[in-house]
C-alpha cells in the first residue's frame, strides 16, 4: 500500500533508528569537506583572504535554504526533503574536488551548504516528532550521532587521503557510505512534517526568539573554540603549534561523549537543571582556560566547556517541540538559522574584541554570556 504524504503513523523504534542514522549522515557528509579545503585552495589558486570569503558561501547557502527547508518538510514530509538533501550532499562532494575556478567553487559550495542546511532543519523536525511520540528524552542522543558522524567523516577522509587515494576517489567512497546509510534509513523516515503548517518564513518571536538567542550563544561558543583556541594556546600560553589543535579536540570529544550519554542525564535532572549546570560548567571552562598559565590546564578548560555545552542545544530543540507560539516548520529553521549565524559570527566577534582589548578578555566575555544562558532555563517550559 502506498502511504500518502499526509498519512500519519505513530513513530516507533524503527523511526528512532532512522533518525539516528540521518543525524550521522549529516555530520559525516559535512565534516568530510574539511580535509578537502587545502586541495580546493591550491586548485583554485586563491589567497587565504579569498579562501575565507569563499568558505562563507557554505554558511550562506545553509542560512538561505533553512526557512524553505521547514516549509518543504511541512508540505512534502521529512522523508522526501531528507532524502533529496542527502543525495545533493553525496553528489556535490565529488564535484568539489574537480572544480578549479573560483566561480564554480562558489556555486558548488552554495549548493553544498544549502543541502547541509536543508537536511539539518528537516532532520531536527523529524527528531522533535519522534522524541515527542516516545515520551522520553532522545534529542541529545540524536545530536550525539551528528558529532560521531563528524568525527567519522573528517577522520575517514583524512585516512583515505593519507593512503594516497586521490581526493575525487576519496569523496566517491564517502558518498557511497552516505548512499548506503540513506538506503537503510529512508523507509522509516516520516512521510509527514510538523503537526501544523505555517508560512515559509516568519521572523521569530516570543519563546522561539528566546530559544534562538540561546542557540546563538551556544554556537558562538563553539565557533570561538573552533577558530581561536589554537591561537590562544600558541600566542598567549606559548604552546607548540603542532599540539594547538588539542584544545578543540578536547572540546569536541567531551561534547560528543556528553551527548551520547545525555538522554539519561536529561531524564534524571530535567531540562532546566541541564541548562543551569551546563551553562555554569561552560563558563567555568572558559574562565579556567583563559586565566591559567598552563596549556595542559587550558585544554582541560576547553574540555569542561564541551561537557557543559553538550546537552543544552538538544534541550533547546526539545523545547521547540513543546512551544505553541510558532509551528515547528517555522520555529526549527528560525533557531537553526540563529545558531548558524552564531557559529559564523563567532570568529569575527571574538577577533573584534581581541583587537580592541585582548583574546583573554574576549573569552571572558564568552564566559559571561554562558552564565546568562545558565540562568535562562527557568523561563522555558519543561
UniProtKB/TrEMBL annotation:
One protein family per Pfam: MFS_1
InterPro entries the UniProt entry points to: MFS, MFS_dom, MFS_trans_sf, MFS_Transporter
Residue ranges crossing the lipid bilayer per the database entry: 21-40, 52-74, 81-99, 105-130, 142-162, 168-189, 201-221, 241-262, 274-293, 299-320, 332-353, 359-380
Every Major facilitator superfamily (MFS) profile domain range: 207-382
One GO MF term: transmembrane transporter activity
Topology versus the membrane: Multi-pass membrane protein
Subcellular location as annotated: Membrane
Keywords: Membrane, Transmembrane, Transmembrane helix
A Gene Ontology term for the protein's cellular component: membrane
Highest rank taxon of the organism: Bacteria
Gene3D superfamilies named among the record's database cross-references: MFS general substrate transporter like domains (1.20.1250.20)
Protein name: MFS transporter
Record organism: Lichenicola cladoniae
Amino acid at each position: 500500500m502506498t502511504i500518502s504524504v499526509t498519512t500519519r503513523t505513530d513513530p516507533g523504534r524503527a523511526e528512532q533508528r532512522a533518525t539516528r542514522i540521518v543525524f550521522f549522515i549529516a555530520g559525516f557528509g559535512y565534516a568530510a569537506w574539511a580535509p578537502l579545503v587545502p586541495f580546493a585552495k591550491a586548485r583554485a589558486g586563491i589567497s587565504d583572504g579569498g579562501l575565507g570569503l569563499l568558505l562563507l558561501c557554505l554558511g550562506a547557502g545553509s542560512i538561505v535554504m533553512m526557512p524553505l527547508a521547514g516549509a518543504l518538510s511541512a508540505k512534502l514530509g521529512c522523508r522526501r526533503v531528507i532524502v533529496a538533501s542527502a543525495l545533493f550532499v553525496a553528489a556535490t562532494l565529488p564535484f568539489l574536488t574537480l572544480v578549479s575556478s573560483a566561480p564554480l567553487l562558489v556555486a558548488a559550495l552554495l549548493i553544498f551548504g544549502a543541502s547541509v542546511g536543508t537536511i539539518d532543519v528537516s532532520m531536527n523536525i523529524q527528531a522533535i516528532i519522534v522524541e515527542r511520540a516516545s515520551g522520553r528524552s532522545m534529542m541529545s542522543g540524536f545530536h550525539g550521532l551528528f558529532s560521531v558522524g563528524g568525527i567519522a567523516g573528517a577522520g575517514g577522509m583524512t585516512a583515505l587521503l593519507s593512503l594516497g587515494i586521490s581526493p575525487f576517489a576519496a569523496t566517491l567512497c564517502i558518498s557511497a557510505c552516505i548512499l548506503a546509510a540513506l538506503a537503510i534509513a529512508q523507509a522509516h523516515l516520516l512521510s509527514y512534517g510538523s503537526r501544523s503548517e505555517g508560512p515559509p518564513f516568519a521572523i521569530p518571536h516570543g519563546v522561539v526568539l528566546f530559544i534562538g538567542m540561546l542557540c546563538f550563544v551556544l554556537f558562538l561558543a563553539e565557533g570561538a573554540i573552533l577558530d581561536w583556541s589554537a591561537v590562544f594556546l600558541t600566542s598567549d600560553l606559548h604552546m607548540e603549534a603542532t599540539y594547538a589543535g588539542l584544545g578543540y579536540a578536547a572540546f569536541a570529544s567531551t561534547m560528543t561523549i556528553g551527548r551520547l550519554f545525555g538522554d539519561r542525564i536529561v531524564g534524571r535532572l530535567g531540562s532546566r537543571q541541564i541548562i543551569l549546570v551546563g551553562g555554569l560548567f561552560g563558563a567555568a571552562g572558559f574562565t579556567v582556560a583563559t586565566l591559567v598559565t598552563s596549556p595542559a590546564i587550558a585544554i582541560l578548560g576547553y574540555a569542561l566547556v564541551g561537557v557543559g555545552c553538550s546537552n543544552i542545544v538538544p534541550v533547546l530543540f526539545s523545547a521547540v517541540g513543546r512551544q505553541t507560539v510558532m509551528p515547528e516548520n517555522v520555529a526549527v529553521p528560525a533557531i537553526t538559522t540563529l545558531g548558524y549565524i552564531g557559529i559564523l559570527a563567532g570568529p569575527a566577534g571574538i577577533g573584534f574584541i581581541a583587537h580592541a582589548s585582548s583574546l583573554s578578555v574576549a573569552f571572558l566575555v564568552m564566559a559571561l554570556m554562558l552564565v546568562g544562558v545558565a540562568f535562562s532555563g527557568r523561563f522555558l517550559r519543561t
